[in-house]
Design brief:
The chain is mainly beta. It is 3% helix and 55% strand. The protein is globular and about 75 Å long.
């Protein structure tokens, strides 16, 4: 064993040195997120973490890819209601943020890859795949709903094109819920908090009958507005109501065959965030257009505001058959549908200015409305094999979705005097009667076949594992842009017509991975993989021009280690790669009859040249004494997108020849998260305490500068960066209190998010005329919660 250890350690050192000479930035992580795998009061060593990233249950430490894992206890400690709550930086390298002011639609990227601009459109996708129990969620509009009884969230970092397919160029987020156990269990949770918040959950696991086990879940969550709206009768800003039910039946027909059926339906109503004016521009401000450079509690002016409502439902049927001791066959069939309304009037306070300084009759309060509908069906079949020296996964996928959307916008307020100190609410027209600004629909079909195999040769005590994988995918999108400005679109030839979209592309994504067990507790790997984000069209454009897929190719090396009798876990890795055909947005004036108007449209092109990606990630987990776990994770990421020339004419009809810088959005260069967890058995109960701190260095929210004339030109107006953030969350609980003669336990806890009420602008936008505006993070929230388990 000593000889083997010396040999492999020497080989690893030589590999790392060679990679450093070649320019690899370092080692990047596979952090198992804090709290997962923590020490327990009954054991001083760290517990094992089981993941399914390679379509089979296996130890995180022996899975040679970069993964972070957050378990049910970690979610509860952080009082996570929906995925948006992971936006505080809980998992470095993963960024979750609302799209502009809409908590109902989320932006998700990993390692700075995933979405550069608006991914909410029917013919456009995000580059991070989100899965629930193996089912791909095709639209970001469905991601704001409350989470059901989650067992774990796995964040797979880097391209996952082989096993997960399209739209996983940045990685994948795989959410697994708890399955029926066939035994009676009841878990009831109820809590209250500030801002009128409350949360209730009930999870009932019923005894099996004739081999059928049933589990029922229900969740309700509410919060009053964070910012008040001065308009009587109108909703405030950043409030939510979330509720949903989930039912699952697991029928074990025989020891070798099972059928798992699941149904869920959710309702998510939330109001827009409040956009504050931080600093003025060159325009003259209305008297009501006061600056709000710190987090406001009341909006400047009252505006009509109502919740945007999302309704999501779905069916899933998973069939699993153990055809032999070495072969399992699986089928995952699913149908899902969603509808999402948008009623966004959160930016009124930043539009209270003009060049003249005379405001009589000036309208403001742009009410942005949109209706979005989607349904999808998917079928995936898998063959999972486990031979003595060969493990493999093979399968095929069919996915089809139909999506349509429309958008409207109009002013709801009007100034009644020249100073802009008084205003009236305009008569709001019937939404069904006003003009549609734009509308489109699209049908997407994707088919694919994949295979991945890991071979362990009879060498060095089975310490070498070579994995190869390949996936072929064919995507097609057929749709049409059929309304622009309340009429048929006008194409570049000046013809009014419905503009079709017909795009079909094929793609092959390979993966190669060499993993080595240096010792029982030290594992190293080197991996090369690719992934892509589908092509499509921008429904905000005038001509509905298509754009092609963008692609990522990454090489990473990593090491997963457990030291000092499993009291220390250190996972490190580093990656470097290329980013090609990046989908970049440019604004341009709308043109009709050869005349350019003040209305702008947004068109998307594939940037020429290659972008670059590199990064370092690491996580350290220590269990120094019984019941105490210390965790620290860190990610550094660098994304460079080549400067790109705007190919579209400006308002004067001229086409620029200057390549403008492109910023990668929602990507902090540095982020870190640390936590302290302690469990102490006391007489008749357990004391549990959790504290976490989360940091990011700030990031860009928009991909281009407000005004860019040329390199180092003094007239340039540069894109601002969001502010640095450090947020602290905590939870303290008295758990496992026996309820006399009831066979149940009680847990009482107190939670707090943003403990020190830190405030920062997580979104900044700058206009030379109207000024700097932005969204602040949420203030301190806290509450108490009781949980009863039978």
């Amino acid at each position: 064993m000593t000889t083997r250890r010396t040999f492999w350690c020497g080989l690893l050192a030589a590999t790392a040195l060679g990679a450093g000479i070649a320019g690899t930035p370092g080692l990047a992580a596979d952090p198992a997120v804090p709290m997962t795998g923590a020490a327990t009061p009954d054991s001083q060593e760290l517990t094992d973490i089981v993941v399914t990233a390679e379509k089979r249950p296996q130890s995180l430490q022996k899975t040679p890819i970069s993964i972070s894992v957050l378990d049910a206890k970690g979610l509860q400690d952080r009082h996570v209601v929906s995925l948006i709550d992971l936006g505080d930086g809980t998992i470095p390298g993963l960024k979750v943020a609302p799209f502009y002011s809409r908590n109902s639609s989320l932006i998700v990227n990993i390692r700075g890859v995933g979405v550069l601009s608006d991914g909410n459109q029917p013919a456009r996708d995000q580059g991070v795949g989100v899965y629930v129990d193996g089912v791909y969620l095709g639209r970001p509009q469905s991601l704001g709903t409350a989470l059901f009884d989650v067992q774990s969230i796995e964040v797979l970092k880097g391209p996952q094109g082989t096993l997960f397919g399209r739209n996983t160029e940045g990685g994948a987020v795989s959410i697994t819920t708890k399955r029926p156990s066939g035994e009676f269990h009841l878990n009831a949770i109820a809590g209250l908090g500030n801002y009128g918040s409350y949360k209730s959950e009930i999870h009932a696991d019923l005894p099996s009958f004739n081999g059928i086990a049933i589990k029922l879940d229900g969740v309700v969550a509410h919060r009053d507005p964070i910012q008040k709206n001065p308009l009587a009768g109108a909703h405030g800003f950043n409030e939510y109501d979330k509720r949903g039910v989930h039912a699952e039946a697991l029928w074990t027909m025989s020891p070798s065959f099972s059928a798992d059926y699941s149904f869920d339906t959710s309702y998510d109503a939330s109001t827009s965030l409040y956009l504050q004016l931080i600093a003025p521009g060159t325009n003259r401000q209305a008297a009501l257009g006061t600056l709000q450079p710190s987090r406001a509690t009341v909006a400047n002016v009252g505006v009509p505001e109502q919740p945007s409502v999302g309704k999501v439902s779905g069916h899933r049927l998973t069939l699993e058959y153990a055809a032999a001791s070495y072969l399992t066959l699986k089928s995952i069939s699913a149908y899902r549908s969603l509808s999402q309304s948008q009623y966004d009037n959160g930016s009124a306070a930043t539009a209270l200015s003009n060049a003249t300084g005379i405001f009589t009759g000036a309208g403001f309060g742009r009410y942005s409305l949109a209706q979005f509908h989607q349904n999808q069906i998917s079928e995936e079949i898998q063959a999972i094999g486990d031979l003595r020296r060969l493990k493999f996964v093979a399968g095929a996928l069919y996915y089809r979705e139909k999506v349509n959307d429309n958008a409207q916008a109009f002013n709801t307020n009007q100034f009644t005097n020249a100073a802009g100190s008084a205003y009236a609410i305009l008569s709001i027209p019937d939404f069904n009667a006003i003009s549609i600004d734009r509308a489109s629909r699209v049908r997407t079909t994707s088919i694919g076949a994949f295979g991945q195999a890991t071979y362990t040769p009879d060498l060095f005590e089975d310490a070498i594992h070579l994995t190869g994988g390949l996936r072929w995918t064919r995507d097609s999108k057929h749709g049409e842009l059929f309304i622009v400005n309340g009429a048929l679109p006008v194409d570049r030839n000046g013809v009014s017509r419905v503009i079709p979209l017909d795009i079909a592309t094929s793609r092959v994504d390979p993966m190669v991975n060499l993993a080595v067990d240096l010792t029982r507790d030290i594992h190293a790997y080197g991996k090369w993989s690719t992934g892509y984000k589908s092509g499509g069209a921008n429904s905000r454009s005038q001509e509905y021009d298509r754009f092609d897929p963008e692609t990522v190719s990454i090489f990473e090396i990593g090491a997963k280690t457990e030291l000092f009798d499993r009291h220390v876990r250190l996972n490190i890795a580093g990656y470097i790669g290329t980013y090609k055909d990046i989908q970049v947005d440019f604004s341009r004036p709308y043109e009709t009859g050869g005349v350019r108007t003040t209305r702008t449209t947004t068109s998307t092109i594939n940037a020429p040249g290659k972008g670059r990606l590199r990064g370092v990630e690491a996580e350290l987990t220590i269990a120094p004494v019984r019941g105490l776990t210390l965790s620290l994770s860190y990610a550094h990421q660098y994304v460079r997108i080549p400067a790109t020339v705007n190919p579209y004419p400006n308002a004067a009809g001229a086409v620029s020849t200057v390549a403008v810088p492109i910023y990668q959005t929602n990507t902090p260069a540095d982020s870190a998260s640390g936590s302290i967890d302690y469990e102490l058995p006391i007489r008749g109960a357990t004391l549990r305490a959790h504290l976490d701190g989360n940091y990011d260095s700030g990031f860009y929210n928009n991909s281009v500068d407000p005004l860019y004339i040329g390199p180092n030109n003094p007239a340039n107006v540069y894109q601002p960066k969001s502010e640095k953030a450090f947020l602290v969350n905590g939870n303290i609980a008295l758990a496992d209190i026996a309820i006399a003669q009831a066979g149940a336990t009680l847990t009482m806890s107190f939670w707090v998010r943003n403990l020190f009420d830190e405030q920062h602008l997580f979104y900044k936008a700058l206009s030379p005329t109207s000024g700097l505006n932005g969204f602040f993070n949420e203030p301190r929230t806290f509450g108490v919660q009781g949980q009863v388990k039978f």
